[in-house]
């Protein structure tokens, strides 16, 4: 009695005691056959916020001992619930038969067989050449069962089916970064989904869906297409109301400037009459331009100039398209799988 | 001109040339030119009047917005009055232009003009001008006929007329160019006038040029 009280008092966590200490104390309590005290410590360690400080191995250890304790206390339903939680957390985990008694390991195996779930292993950061590379995905089931593996868009719509069939000890599937039509998957988030199916044949139903977020990006630096020539960059193809007037005004102005050059450059000098010939020719050209370009008349020179400009734009666009295609051939898919898998229950098959 | 203005001109030319010379297929042009020259000089020995027709040629290469032009003239100017004497004229110019817009261009050029006097007439007189100018160009009849006018001022000038004080120079020209459709031929009629003066030597030289050029262009 006194010994039990002392043990319980020792097992009571002090303020600030961390979850790892609690797990260690509970294991000692378990080994001392103080199951009630050990269960209390483990439940405390597995409850947030203390549970958040446990790493994966400590969490697995805590769940193993808690399930064993519940079974040994003849709380079978509680033990199954804890083991089920353990299987969902780490489908590859197996109880150590040297540590736990047969009635515990038997119950765990029973729960493991009934709980259909798959562990997914994907490289955290992968750069895959698009023409020859693959994203490897390793799948480890809690127990053999049928699965469907696929890639889904962020909104859940299917993108690409990767595998459908039995999953025994483990399975490696590969994804080339493309959708079911062969096109590159969109940038951003997609889901790697693994649906565990229970039952068999045509009556199989999806028991559980595990989704792993994948962030996709392309290590691809393409050039933008040249901007098409806009209205401001093309010459008018028909004479407007001002076209002729502009020619007339320009001819008269430049002609006047030619005549006035001696006054501007060499005032006081007696200029020759040749400037009048040039000034007159300029003015006459302006008049001809005015008369030759009535409103609405096609301007062949402008049409040809615009055609040349459009052809130049098309030539440059074709060059950019070719260059981008060349770069895409050497592009790589960058896959980041930093998120946690999300398990979604889909029916009675998953519940033990 | 001040050193600042010289630097400005040089920088402008260099920047313009560097900006668009690369990766451009040039438009080449060459022509033969006939120039009616009328030169009027004022100096200590009194006014001189000479005129004559000189011949020459020019070549132009345009790389996008940048244009490089070389020009050469040579001929004889006959005296127009009893106080003047016959002079041989040799003129060369190398210019770099930048077409900022389809209708506006800036140009800087180095122009050398030499008057070779007859023996006993004062030797050879050389005028060397570094100029900077602007030019406005516009179509008059579609792209068949174009008109242009330009003005320039001297950034620096050198003349062996006895003094270096008060040197200045400016000029301008206007012309009309006919580019034959579907043919590489073009014709140009132009009038130009420039004046260089050296106040320290009481010397002033005004030259008018009436130019007819026939050229070919190759893209």
Describe the protein.
The complex is a heterodimer of chains A (352) and B (219). Helices cover 43% and strands 21% of the residues of chain A. Chain A is α+β, with helices and mostly antiparallel strands and 352 residues long. Chain A folds into three domains: 2-114, Alpha Horseshoe (Serine Threonine Protein Phosphatase 5, Tetratricopeptide repeat); 118-217 and 336-350, Sandwich (Immunoglobulin-like), CATH 2.60.40.4070; 231-329, no CATH class. In chain A, strands 2, 4, 5, 7, 8, 9 and 10 form a seven-stranded antiparallel beta sheet that branches. In chain A, strand 4 (145-153) and strand 5 form a beta hairpin. In chain A, helix 4 (56-72) runs antiparallel to helix 5 (76-89), helix 4 (56-72) crosses helix 6 and helix 5 (76-89) packs across helix 6. Chain A is rod-shaped. In chain A, 32% of the residues are buried. Chain B has one helix at 3-20; strands at residues 27-42, 48-63, 66-79, 87-101, 104-116, 124-141, 145-159, 167-179, 185-198, 203-218. Chain B has 219 residues and is mainly beta. Chain B has a ten-stranded antiparallel β-barrel with strand order 1-2-3-4-5-6-7-8-9-10. The longest helix of chain B has 18 residues, at 3-20. Chain B has one domain (3-18, 27-218): OPCA outer membrane adhesin/invasin (Lipocalin, Beta Barrel), CATH 2.40.128. The A-B interface holds A 247, 250-251, 254-255, 257-258, 261-262, 264-266, 269-272, 274-275, 277-279, 281-282, 285-286, 288-289, 292-293, 299-302, 305 and B 36, 38, 40, 136, 138-145, 147-149, 151, 170-176, 181, 189-195, 206, 208, 210.
């Amino acid at each position: 009695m006194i010994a039990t009280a002392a043990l319980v008092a020792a097992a009571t966590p002090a303020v600030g005691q961390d979850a790892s200490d609690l797990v260690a104390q509970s294991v000692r309590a378990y080994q001392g056959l103080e199951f009630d005290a050990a269960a209390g410590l483990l439940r405390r360690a597995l409850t947030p916020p203390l549970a958040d400080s446990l790493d994966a191995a400590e969490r697995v250890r805590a769940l193993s001992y808690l399930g064993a304790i519940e079974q040994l206390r003849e709380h079978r339903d509680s033990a199954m619930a804890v083991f089920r939680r353990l299987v969902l957390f780490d489908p590859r985990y197996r109880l150590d038969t040297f540590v736990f008694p047969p009635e515990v390991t038997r119950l765990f195996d029973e729960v493991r067989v009934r709980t259909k779930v798959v562990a997914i292993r994907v490289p955290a950061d992968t750069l895959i050449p698009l023409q020859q590379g693959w994203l490897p995905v390793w799948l480890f089931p809690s127990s053999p069962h049928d699965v469907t593996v696929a890639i889904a868009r962020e909104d859940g719509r299917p993108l690409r089916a990767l595998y459908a069939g039995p999953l025994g000890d483990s399975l490696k599937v590969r994804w080339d970064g493309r959708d079911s039509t062969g096109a590159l998957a969109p940038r951003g988030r997609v889901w790697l989904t693994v649906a565990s199916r229970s039952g068999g044949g045509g009556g199989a139903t999806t028991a559980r869906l595990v989704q792993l977020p994948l962030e996709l990006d392309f290590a691809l630096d393409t050039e933008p297409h040249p901007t098409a020539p806009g209205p401001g960059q093309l010459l008018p193809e028909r004479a407007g109301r001002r076209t002729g007037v502009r020619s007339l005004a320009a001819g008269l102005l430049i002609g006047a400037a030619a005549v006035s050059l001696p006054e501007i450059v060499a005032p006081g000098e007696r200029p020759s009459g040749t400037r009048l010939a040039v000034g007159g020719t300029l003015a006459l050209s302006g008049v001809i331009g005015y008369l030759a370009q009535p409103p609405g008349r096609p301007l062949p020179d402008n049409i040809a100039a615009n055609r040349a400009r459009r052809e130049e734009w098309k030539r440059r666009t074709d060059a950019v398209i070719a260059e981008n295609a060349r770069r895409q051939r050497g592009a790589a898919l960058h896959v980041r799988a930093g998120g946690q898998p999300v398990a979604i229950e889909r029916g009675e098959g998953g519940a033990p | 001109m001040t050193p600042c203005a010289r630097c400005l001109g040089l920088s402008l030319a260099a920047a313009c040339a560097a900006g668009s010379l690369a990766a451009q297929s040039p438009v080449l042009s060459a022509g033969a030119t006939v120039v009616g020259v009328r030169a009027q000089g004022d100096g200590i020995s009194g006014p001189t009047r000479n005129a004559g027709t000189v011949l020459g040629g020019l070549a132009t290469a345009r790389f996008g917005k940048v244009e490089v032009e070389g020009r050469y003239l040579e001929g004889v100017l006959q005296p127009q009055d009893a106080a003047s004497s016959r002079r041989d004229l040799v003129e060369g110019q190398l210019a770099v232009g930048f077409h900022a817009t389809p209708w506006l261009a800036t140009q800087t050029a180095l122009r050398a003009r030499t008057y070779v006097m007859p023996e006993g007439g004062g030797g050879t007189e050389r005028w060397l001008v570094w100029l900077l100018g602007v030019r406005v160009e516009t179509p008059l009849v579609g792209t068949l006929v174009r008109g242009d006018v330009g003005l320039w001022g001297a950034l620096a000038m050198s003349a062996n007329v006895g003094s270096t004080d008060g040197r200045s120079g400016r000029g301008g020209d206007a012309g009309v160019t006919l580019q034959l459709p579907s043919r590489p031929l073009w014709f140009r009629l132009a009038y130009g006038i420039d004046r260089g003066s050296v106040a320290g030597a009481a010397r002033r030289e005004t030259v008018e040029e009436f130019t007819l050029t026939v050229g070919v262009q190759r893209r």
